[in-house]
Amino acid sequence: MSDESQLEESQINRAQAALSACGVDGVVSSVERLKGQSHLSWKVERINAPPVVLRMEPKRGILPPYDLPAEARLLKQLAQAGIPVLEVLGVCADLEPSEDAGRACLVVEWVNGEVLIKRRMEAHAARAYCDTLQRIHTLDWRAAGIDWLPEPPESGPAIRERAEIAERLKSFGVFDLPHIRRLREALEGRAPQSPSPMLVHGDVNFGNIMLRPGRPPQVAAVLDWEQTHLGDPLSDWGRLAAEDLLGNLDLSPAARQVMREALASYGRSDDDIHYWTLHQLYKHSSATGALTVLRGWDAEQIAKMYAEPTKQMLSGRGPFQGCP
After folding, report:
1. Which residue from 77, 98, 101 is spatially nearest to 88, judged by alpha carbons?
2. Separation of alpha carbons 18 and 96, rounded Å
3. Is the dihedral of CA 152, 155, 158, 159 positive or negative?
4. CA 4/CA 136 separation, integer angstroms
5. DSSP state, 323?
6. Where are the beta strands (DSSP E) in the chain?
7. I want to staple 120 with a disulfide (CB 3.0 to 4.6 A). Which of 83, 188, 250, 293 is the partner?
């Protein structure tokens, strides 16, 4: 048996063991690794059964801590509340006694759809995206039973999140990289007055939104809820604005206008929006900083990636303005 065949057999056996531990039936026929920098994720094909998605906690990830059993609980409650999410098929808190002992795993349904990050976003898709994001933010999380998520401290969600980011940076030894320090210093002494806690997805990049085929488009599912928390909804919008500054969003002019109008509907000040965009650049830098350690990414190249976005933010540029 070739090395490639042995590897494939090992992956199939590993997936089979994980599905069994989650109480999911079916004989695994093939496994395909899915993209993503956080959890380990695979599309798992089964004989005479629909494919499923298997997610497993990494040994050491870029945005710890991870808690897949808690995410499974959240997904079930969100589904009951009418938020489009993947159906939970099974979860296991510890894959003992396999080679993945100590890790949790989660099995969810496979849904056919288009991830928005793969193409240019037009106005109709942007509208579907923004409508779904607003549904998440305005969800009555207490009525939905999601009051087990911790509420922000009196100091506010921004201070709590910054403390979590700093802890991750220190754990990877990248706290004092010059481009990260520059972003942190720009945030010092600043924190917005946030509204009452709302549900925040935490990772709203376009790769985590899946559209169903057809017109008008509808959101099939919102993916990857491991960073969900109670906090300020502008944290999510800041992430989108940061991704735009980093050149990771491809928005048509009409889609960009839809995004601006949706953001304006929150009724927040320009200072608040500016803060959360800068804040999310800082958080983004903590993830890429971790990847310089875990994956050997070039730290100098990573630093260059933040130079122009940081300059634009420090000059007071607003979000979703397009190229200057």
Report:
1. 77
2. 10
3. negative
4. 43
5. -
6. 28-33, 40-46, 49-56, 88-92, 105-109, 114-115, 198-200, 209-212, 218-222, 229-231
7. 250
